[in-house]
Amino acid sequence: MTDADADAVAPARTAAVAPGSSPWKGWAAVSAVSLGIFCLITSELLPVGLLTPVGDSLGVSDGTAGLMVTVPGLIAGFCAPLVTVGAGRLDRRLVLCVLIALMAVANLAAALAPGFAVVLAARLLVGVSVGGFWAIAGGLAVRLVPERHVGRATAVVFGGVPTASVLGVPAGTLLGELGGWRTAFAAVAALGLVTLIALLLLLPALPADRGIRFGELPALLRDNRAVRAGVIVTFLVVTGQFTAYTFVRPILRDVSGIDAEYVSTLLLGYGVAGVAGNFLAGARDPRRTLLVVSASLAAVLALIATLPGAFAGTALLLAWGLGYGGVSVSLQSWMIRAAPRAAEAASSLMVAMFNLAIAAGAFAGGLAVDGLSAPAAPLTGAALMLAAAVTIGTTSASARRRGPAAGIPDHPRRAAEASRTAGAEVPYKTDG
């Protein structure tokens, strides 16, 4: 089975937007899906800024409290392909609404939880929602807007991922500091209800054209070098990020000497820098962007673990946000361009690894913090970022040796054309 065959496991386009349908309705639906992703990723990462308050309230350590990030990440990683395959021919609108409703109920349960075990059970349900929603939402833009707007609409949908990572967590942290951590979880549950209403009102019926078989996913991973490399890079970068970021609060406290009352403000600054990084990376070559980002973050994480002082900690946190803001959109672009005719399958593989890496990072960071010290978490993250940079460089060098047929084109339309005409894997741009 060639890489072109692997790409062909899904059609290049699903059912197109209906002729004569209102452009406003299409963009409203895109916005509702983006809000859903924002809500879910915010829910998944909300504990990052609330580890210490939750741990103190429920009598667990910072490392144990980190399981609130590990558990949903692990479950989401497994559920991304499972829900994608298991949804079969169900209407995608119904599936997305059920998943959002499940997330809202889970966050309400966490807000009312009498003990840490109940919180973890609720976080498991969040993981199911995140993995399934993100994987299915990735292929919907093509069904909601005219073809000429698909690229922009896809960017809007996936803009919910970095926006949640860099804005949702700081906002939740601030709300938790003002009203308590239970208030923050309850607020995300309320946001989920608002999102459910938006999906019901704005999404059209989205019947599935075909289902994905389980066997297609390992075949794509096995036979497409660019997809396989993208999954490996996803694991290294995201694990490195969350090994450190899950414990950003104790890091800023123990290394930089920053008082807890200022953490939420600094995380908002991190968020603003991350949004800027997302826009800077959005239109660029994903391989080059991820090479620069991973190498830069390796340096930033090593420095934030070793340089004392509030000024250094603040500057490095802003640089951290700027760099990581471009990761999600670059990884998604890498996978879509690697397998343009199997975008939903490739996306589910990336989403699975992205969320498993969140879990792995939170778990590794917890071991480092509890077993050694707070600075051990960003130092471990720096090593993983460096490994990612080396992997990207090695992959690029290998692609250049294989010649022009080994690189991904810099435009999705050319990628799709390549997948229809080439007998080998989708080209990956190597020379800019």
UniProtKB/TrEMBL annotation:
InterPro entries: MFS, MFS_dom, MFS_Efflux_Transporters, MFS_trans_sf
Name of this chain's protein: MFS transporter
Region (Disordered): 399-432
Keyword annotations: Cell membrane, Membrane, Transmembrane, Transmembrane helix
Record flagged with keyword Cell membrane: yes
Domain Major facilitator superfamily (MFS) profile: 29-400
PANTHER family per the UniProt record, alphabetical: CHLORAMPHENICOL EFFLUX PUMP RV0191, PURINE EFFLUX PUMP PBUE
Subcellular location: Cell membrane
Annotated TM spans: 27-46, 66-87, 94-114, 120-142, 154-172, 184-206, 226-248, 260-283, 290-311, 317-336, 348-369, 375-393
Keyword tRNA processing: no
Gene3D superfamilies named among the record's database cross-references: MFS general substrate transporter like domains
Membrane topology category: Multi-pass membrane protein
Source superkingdom: Bacteria
Main location: membrane
